[in-house]
């Protein structure tokens, strides 16, 4: 009997592994949303292992597991928040891992998987197109009908993937070439500038915001050219690949732009200007931020801060020295974020635009929500409202939990939590001092913010079923 126990135990373990494999395969293949979560989690675990290796740290002794996990999450989710000093913690190997990670996360894991499949097989099957389409429009993962006129058609997914790959390579290369002489003129050694220029290009286009040198962008505070290039790169990354695809096809024909592209560009521009004006009005007399600058410097830095609070993550001034009113404005901008299917986070500018249009239509007594000669269907409005509700809930729960763990000022906790949820990367200085339990909560907030509330809801929901009946209508009192 004793000799028969080990084979039985071994067969039991094989059975358990087979069951786990079947569950993972069924979970991943059941929907693009669940596949996205599985790939994200797998990448985070891989990068956590790589960053925890002694070879990845500058001192050769390895990195604390909580710090390695948080850096991996912040890298794959292109956030930019960090619990360690990015300029001194990592070796060249560690920096290479982070550089690759932000580009993988910036393009989108589903998009990258589809690109690799396209390169290997030279074609995209229907399932691969559906998976890639889930990255270009999260509504596809929601299970409802999709208005193809508002996004990229399924037959154009292959062209979109080429646009994603080419735009990432070309934009980062051009930005790096523009930054190289600027870094040298700023006093960076030519050899160091050879790797810092591509680093800054990747961190700006992916809206991550990691800086490779001590002091961050403070040494370049007066370099308008370098800061403008970074702002332009952040803008291109934050509008989203579907918008870049639309612009590449109909650059001079605005009437042929999709509704999504129009709403994204207009709302982005309005928030950029409104945020700059708000910071200008609130911080012009703050001696710790803009108070010591002249009018030109103050105006430029206000616009730079407005661009970075949207999702860029770079900063010239100390965020912790901003007035409380400015922190509230920054939190609002970070919560909105950038464009859908972009390297930015937040609830997305189109979500804000749709809700604003719905409020305007309700005030005017209109039966439908319309924009640019198009009617926005009710299911899109419901999803927009759900995104805001889930986003606010995630931020509230994370803020309460971290505030209870750290007993830190609630304004600082709220700002850093919204920065995590919006994958922005700006910090009041709180994140670097968090204990391990709070680090894990912040990492989970980053993960949920990057995955997106629509994808999360679609992943945990049961398979959609057709409802062949409707219930009686009754109107509760609202307001």
From TrEMBL:
Topological type in the membrane: Multi-pass membrane protein
Example of a GO cellular component annotation carried by this entry = plasma membrane
InterPro entries membership? Cat_transpt
Give its localization: Cell membrane
Q: Which domain of life is it from?
A: Bacteria
- Which keywords annotate this record? Cell membrane, Ion transport, Membrane, Transmembrane, Transmembrane helix, Transport
Query: Per the database entry, which stretches of residues form a coiled coil?
Result: none
Question: Would the keyword tRNA processing be found if you checked this record's keyword annotation?
Answer: no
Residue intervals passing through the bilayer: 35-56, 68-91, 97-120, 163-188, 224-247, 259-282, 332-361, 382-405, 438-462
**GO MF, one example:** monoatomic cation transmembrane transporter activity
Its GO biological process terms?
metal ion transport
Q: Which PANTHER family match?
A: KTR SYSTEM POTASSIUM UPTAKE PROTEIN B, TRK SYSTEM POTASSIUM UPTAKE PROTEIN TRKG-RELATED
- Please state what the protein is called: Trk-type K+ transport system membrane component
Phylogenetic classification of the source organism:
Bacteria, Bacillati, Actinomycetota, Actinomycetes, Micrococcales
């Amino acid at each position: 009997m004793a000799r028969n126990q080990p084979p039985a135990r071994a067969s039991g373990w094989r059975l358990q592994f087979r069951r786990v494999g079947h569950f993972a395969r069924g979970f991943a293949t059941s929907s693009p949303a669940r596949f996205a979560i599985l790939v994200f989690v797998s990448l985070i675990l891989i990068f956590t292992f790589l960053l925890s290796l002694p070879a990845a740290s500058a001192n050769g002794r390895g990195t604390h597991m909580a710090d390695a996990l948080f850096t991996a999450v912040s890298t794959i989710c292109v956030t930019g928040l960090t619990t360690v000093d990015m300029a001194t913690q990592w070796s060249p190997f560690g920096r290479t891992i982070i550089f690759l990670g932000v580009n993988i996360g910036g393009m989108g894991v589903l998009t990258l998987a589809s690109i690799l499949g396209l390169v290997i097989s030279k074609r995209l099957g229907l399932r691969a197109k559906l998976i890639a389409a889930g990255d270009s429009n999260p509504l596809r993962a929601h299970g409802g009908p999709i208005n193809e006129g508002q996004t990229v058609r399924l037959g154009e997914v292959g062209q979109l993937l080429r646009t994603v790959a080419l735009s990432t390579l070309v934009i980062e290369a051009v930005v790096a070439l523009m930054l190289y002489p600027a870094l040298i003129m700023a006093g960076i050694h030519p050899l160091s500038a050879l790797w810092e220029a591509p680093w800054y290009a990747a961190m700006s286009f992916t809206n991550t915001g990691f800086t490779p040198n001590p002091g961050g962008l403070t040494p370049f505070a007066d370099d308008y050219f370098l800061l403008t290039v970074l702002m332009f790169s952040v803008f291109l990354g934050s509008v989203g690949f579907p918008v870049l695809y639309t612009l590449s096809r109909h650059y001079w024909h605005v009437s042929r732009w999709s509704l999504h592209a129009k709403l994204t560009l207009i709302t982005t521009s309005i928030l950029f200007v409104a945020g700059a004006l708000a910071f200008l009005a609130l911080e012009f007399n703050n001696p710790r931020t803009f108070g010591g600058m002249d009018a030109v410097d103050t105006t430029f830095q206000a616009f730079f801060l407005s661009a970075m609070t949207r999702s860029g993550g770079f900063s010239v001034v100390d965020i912790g020295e901003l007035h409380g009113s400015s922190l509230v404005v920054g939190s609002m901008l970070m919560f909105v974020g950038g464009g859908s299917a972009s390297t930015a986070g937040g609830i997305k500018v189109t979500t804000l635009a749709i809700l604003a249009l719905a409020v305007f239509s309700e005030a005017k007594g209109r039966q439908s929500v319309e924009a640019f000669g198009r009617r926005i269907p009710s299911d899109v409005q419901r999803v927009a409202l759900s995104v805001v509700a889930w986003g606010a809930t995630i931020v509230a729960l994370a803020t309460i939990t971290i505030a209870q763990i750290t007993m830190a000022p609630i304004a600082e906790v709220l700002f850093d939590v919204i920065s995590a949820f919006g994958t922005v990367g700006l910090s009041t200085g709180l994140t670097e001092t968090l204990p391990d339990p709070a680090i894990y909560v912040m990492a989970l907030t980053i993960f949920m913010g990057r995955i997106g509330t629509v994808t999360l809801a679609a992943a945990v929901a049961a398979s959609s079923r057709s409802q062949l009946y409707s219930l009686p209508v009754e109107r509760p009192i609202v307001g």
